[in-house]
Amino acid sequence: MTIAAQLAEVQARIAVAAQAAGRDPATVKLLAVSKTRPAAAVAEAYAAGQRRFGESRVQELRDKVGPLPGDIEWHLIGQLQANKVRAAVQAAAWIHAVDSAGLLERLGRIAAEEGRQPHILLEINISGEASKSGAGVADAPRLLELALRSPQLDCAGLMTLAPLDAPEPVLRRVFGGLRELRDRLAREFGVALPELSMGMSDDFPAAVREGATLVRIGTAIFGERAAGPPGA
Ligand SMILES: *Cc1c(COP(=O)(O)O)cnc(C)c1O
Questions:
Q1: What is the total count of domains within the chain?
Q2: What is the distance in A from the centroid of ligand 1 to the CA of 17?
Q3: For residue 18, what pLDDT is reported?
Q4: How far, in Å, is the centroid of ligand 1 from the Cα of 190?
């Protein structure tokens, strides 16, 4: 299947899941995860109408920004190292995996220096798996308070990853847990936190049913990735 056909199929599956949950499919934004794919694959998806793309690594994102159209909305979805924050802030409009006070402080300071106002998402480890990145649920209020203190950062919501190959009830608990945490934080802090970044190729229908507004999908659009280092 072509990239255009796979994109259309993913959009259709998003619509089915949204409608099953009584949601308007237009409230679910598809983020095409283009990590490890050549710029030509991004251009093909762009030609089919896709405008939001996600990359895991700052250098790869920067390499793609140059040759591709300027109206692409770039999202950094991978772990962000302290020494890459400036490059990330310059290249990405959205930064998904913000999970520590130190990173928030640095993002706020560097965004001010660069005159940028990135949208950020706080990554929360809902499942509690030791191997997963993200802040603990108990740390979320402190991180949100810090994020809201920085006028340079638009804290738009929360992000999470579900365990790999998790059965449906676990997916529901993880994705529903992120939504409930968002609802609680929004109430306690009196802010909107509209975005929930959750769901990947293997689990996005469950995420959409639980309220995802940004689904991060690579394989189902671009095909299997070549084997590589984890997180690449
Ligand atoms: C790679 C990646 C995705 C997309 O994964 P697929 O299974 O290819 O859809 C989503 N989110 C994050 C954080 C990723 O690193």
A1: 1
A2: 19
A3: 98
A4: 31
